[in-house]
Amino acid sequence: MALATELPTAILVRTSSPVRVWRLYGAVVDHICRYDTVSKEEVYEYVALTKTLAQTTADAASQEGIAAGAVASYEAVEDQRTIGSYRLIKTITYADVTTMTLEDYPE
Description:
By secondary structure, this protein is mostly beta strands.
């Protein structure tokens, strides 16, 4: 199998959307302010690349095609030393989304 000299289709290897919840007591009379923050991250891999392609793509750190408020970071890593293949890991981190709701104090 020949190594890729152009970026192939990326493989989604991980996505996560952890939720952080915190409450602010006494902020509003008779209510508790509840804040929910969702962080989203997606990790893609391009495999069987030449060293040059992986390295130049990582160095360019293109933000093209990334949603507004998101940032893509790149990492080129050795994959198979015997055949000289490299992987390019692209991590997209989306802006946190925070919502606030009021809750009544428990009885």
